[in-house]
Amino acid sequence: MKATLLYVVDPDTLEVLxxxxxxxxxxxxxxxxxxxxxxxxxxxxxxxVCREFEKENGGVSIEKYYxxxxxxxRIKFFNKKEMNPLTDQPSFEVECFRLxxxxxxxxxxxxxxxxxxxxxxxxxxxxxGTDKMKPGDELIVPEIIHGIHQIGYLWFEKxxxxx
Length: 163
Prior knowledge:
Distance between the termini: 21 Å
Order of helices and strands: EEEHEEEHEE
Shape: globular
Strand content: 25-35%
Number of strands: 8
């Protein structure tokens, strides 16, 4: 499965837009916005992240920022420690984007059944290492927020345990 993930960062305040996943993988954890590729995306990750963002926030579009979406990470996730990233297919792959836009643009964002309680959190106050964030996020999210490009692999024993 291929998916996208977007972290919107206010360039002036360094706050990050996060919301609590209401269903699916990561339910109950704070996340950026994104989701699985659909046929209508035609393999275009930017198109996918724009579509998913609008669907998950109550209708605020980022289409006009399509070319400003910065692809900063490609992460492959494996569900067994024995899996080899050079020869085995990952359980899923995520293309992670960063968008630097003032938070005032996003005043119309609301909760949906997929993403609840959207909030702006200062980058240094993101609750890594707590029950509000998924284990392993502390390895990836800070670099995405800062625009540090990365390609990586993560292995999970269970849905929430990084090995």
